[in-house]
Amino acid sequence: MPSPRRNVEGRPLGTSASSSSGGGGPGSPTHGSGGGGSSSSRFEFQSLLGSRALGADPTSAWLRLSESPVHRRGSFPLGGASPSQAPPPPLPEEDRMDLNPSFLGIALRSLLAIDLWLSKKLGVCAGEGSSWGSVRPLMKLLEISGHGIPWLLGTLYCLSRSDSWAGREVLMNLLFALLLDLLLVALLKGLVRRRRPAHNQMDMFVTLSVDKYSFPSGHATRAALVSRFILNHLVLAIPLRVLVVLWAFILGLSRVLLGRHNVTDVAFGFLMGYMQYSIVDYCWLSPHNAPLLFALWNQQ
Predict the structure, then answer these.
(1) pTM of the full structure
(2) Could you tell me where the DSSP H helices lie in 162-258?
């Protein structure tokens, strides 16, 4: 014989509440005293179950949502949530992690990391206490040999002492090349504003305001420009031509050894100086296309 349906406490549904409490029903006077406390608890529990099943109590529904671990993690906001439970503001653009960077961005960051690492490894003359600190005075002499001021003063002196039109033409264009190099390097340094390596000592010869920046190397551009100019406009023996090329290469290398520049600064400087000579050769100054300039210099 199947058992009768029972309520939550395991009693038959047909059994009255008075049989268990010894008093009247929920509305009797004995409901609130003696055994009536358990009846009250049973009715409250049953009403709570009914409200949860029907979803009629919005307060209990809100409590269930607030106790949910998904809500505690802040996965979705609630319409009636307090301002303290509002979602956090988005992070600034520079603090966000790019989970899908482009191939070009990865390549540039890798190149920059290799450049900084290699430049620091090659900076063996950056200080007196470095591994090659005893060679530092020689490197600084090379630095002076590629500085712009000695080249400008030497060109002006030779131009003033020259007595031939061919010599003046070559020296005039060398002066134009040096001025163009100073202008373009200063402009590019001001635009890029790359700081010099951290291990560099700012004890350079006659520095200007843009010399605190590193990209590109002005010594490297000047070495490539002057060496190409000399090889194209001076008749030199083969050993002297080799010495000119070695001077340009060692001067660029000394910029990294002294810690003045990174490797990419010097590499781009060589390329830029090589291209600058093409500009000078294209805009070559002569008595035919710049007669006024040569006439003024002849009067002086």
Answers:
(1) 0.64
(2) 165-192, 218-233, 238-257
Q: What's the confidence (pLDDT) of residue 64?
A: 54
- What residues act catalytically? 219, 261
Distance CA 201, CA 215 (A): 16
Are 180 and 279 in contact, with CB atoms under 8 Å apart? Answer: yes
Place of tokens 């009255």: 16
CA distance 152 to 146: 11
- CA atoms of 67 and 63, how far apart (whole Å): 6
- Which two tokens mark 176? 């134009």
In the predicted model, residues of the chain with pLDDT beneath 50 are: 1-3, 5-10, 12-37, 52-56, 65, 70-81, 94
Residue 174 has which token pair? Answer: 């060398």
Q: Which residue has the tokens 């131009």?
A: 159
Question: How far is it, in rounded angstroms, from Cα 27 to Cα 43?
Answer: 12
